[in-house]
Amino acid sequence: MSFRKIDIDAYDEDVLLEGELCEPDPRDPAQVLSDAKQKQAAVRSTLAKGDIPGALGIALDSAPYGPNVEDAKNLTLQTVVSILNSTKSSEINNVVKALSQDAQDTLMKYLYKGMGMPGWGDVSGSVLLGWHEKLTEVAGTGCIVRVMTDRRTV
Fold this sequence. Notes:
Oligomer: single chain
Helix content: 55-70%
């Protein structure tokens, strides 16, 4: 038997499970997906009116997190990326300033998730880096630290 195939966590009493690190999303996975689809429709109508801060606020509100909601997470990422791609670079500062601190932190999570998925959908690295730069200018490095230490991944 190879030692590399042994799951040592099975023999450890003090092992931490992912579910113990943060509270799971109390909503049912089907409900989370339904909420994400509703948010996507609301974002489209808000974007059609030209209200980018409002659309981003809708998309970042109660983001899906935890296990078993990957479809909702991907749908929300697509929604956020579509907002980011449709924003002019000259408007980014004002949009970021209009967000609450929690929304800024959630936006940073989506920026990092988008950067971690190169070639996925319509994710553009230059757009994400531009948003990251402006968000860090407004929210400071504390936003990055909060995102890196938060166990609730989007």
